[in-house]
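Quick entry, no commentary yet.
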Amino acid sequence: MTDVCLLTAREMAAALRRREVSARELVQAHLERIERVNPHVNAIVTLVPERALADAAAADERLAAGEPIGPLHGLPVAHKDTHLTAGIRTTFGSPVMRDHVPDVDDLVVERMRAAGAITIGKTNVPEFAAGSHTFNPIFGATRNPYDPTRTAGGSSGGAAAALATGLHPIADGSDMGGSLRNPASFCNVVGLRPAPGRVPSHPSQVPWATLGVQGPMARTVADAALLLSVLAGPDPRSPIAIEEPGEVFAAPLERDLTGLRVAWSPDLGGAVTVDPAVVAALEPQVRTFTDLGCTVEQDCPDFTGADEVFRTLRAWQFELTLGPVLDRARDQLKATLVANIEEGRRLTGPDLARAEVVHAALYHRMREFFTRYDLLLLPVSQVPPFPIEQEYPTEIDGVAHPGYLDWMRSAYYVSATGHPALSVPAGFTPDGLPVGLQIVGPHRGELAVLQAGHAFEQATRIGERRPAPAA
């Protein structure tokens, strides 16, 4: 039963359907693994074993009775601690919300449970998901499974570390500036930032907003696609929800990539500084696409304005959602979060108007770029996993990056375009730290991105290298 925790989600689901393992046995195996491994990584911060085992027993009874079961039947999942879970503490990583127990589920949690997933707990996050390093005053820091002195990334860092160490087979996450992709890169797992509206969001104070999205994480691209097939699809509670049903992502991902036009840029056309160790890990793997029959050229879209768009819209949204928290509990918020909210308060109407005009121009340049190319390859993160004591890197390859967000441009520039992006395991530094490749596709082109990522994954097998705690 130890090995069952390292199966893929699809393998687990098939074993459950064949009754080679019961949901109770699968949940119990994961609970035992959590007890043994989680103290090394601090990925899961709230655990509900009694509820999980009761839900597993009910799942076994449904299967035995011949009742219909969902595609995630019996799979244990710990949800991101910024996603509402009815009856289970949801802290957002903040002392302000330490005892918060919601009475509703987020739409993504609702869909996963309706598909048969069994909630076992919650995964660690930074305070209010701010920053790509998972630490907070309630639960402390999540450690990188490949080197516990390093960060697991964020804000879905707990989810990624739990995946890497076999604590759950699939995970929900969210991504504004890279929060699905950066931790996936740092932990050698898969994270997909879908196009806005692909995965509807509810409840939300800003249902028309497109900067932040929710999406899947997994140990394989096929498992991420399986979860996306559950999370995607229309919902009347989301005004930007895409009408296409999620089932399109449940089909096999095998595809001949021969003839695809692929652009590769190690530094986003000179717009960012990237650690040489990241480039050295990725350069040989980019050639895999040539081996798969693609035409690969070094090229990049014009990301002019992406910084202004992302920072303006992010600050506006932080002030809108967290301004009241700042007013009543400033002393309980980390300094960088306070600065984010206050930056939003300094924005003017013309600032927002200009950001939207620049946003439109950026989108159309990206759209034109994808008339010449099918895929864009970029580093996910500009640095390998950094020391856990640092809140964020302040220099890259000798170049100062003093700002809180400066080191994350390779991820958040893509966020600003609204295009789907996949982080897939692509190599390791000489120190054994994971490095992810970012595969960006055309607008709403998640299927093409997943198919390319799957082909790359099958050709390289880099994602199969598991960390020592998972042994």
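second:
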Amino acid sequence: MLSKTAEYAIRALVYIQLQNWENKRPGFKEIAINIKSPEHFTAKILQILTRFELIKSIKGRNGGFFFDPNRKDLSLNQIIIAIDGEELFTRCSFGFEKCDGNNRCPLHDDFAELRNNYAVLVKKRSVQSLAKKILSGKAVLTQNIS
């Protein structure tokens, strides 16, 4: 359901949070390596996230990306909207320009339920909750595929 950009954005933010909890501010190259994302693509994503004030950055020798410590948890919903807009939560799965109760595509009711459940999920989950799952060993940030 997510674009590749949104997937990398979420992974980057989770990595940043994990590093921030260790009092570190990672740079874009470090982030790219650790989330297995192309460097230039990662840099562009981080620029977008900074522009939307979802994270902060400091340039220079001791610089890097970090979360404002006074900010509340960052929901996945906020990231998705910043990267992809709200279309994910409104678009038709069949590609109809106008799909509603009067103009239903064959998947309208099923997809509407799925889309609504997904919207609830991404509002409940945060970068911080995902990072805590990784810290506890219940999840991983990247897969080790042999």
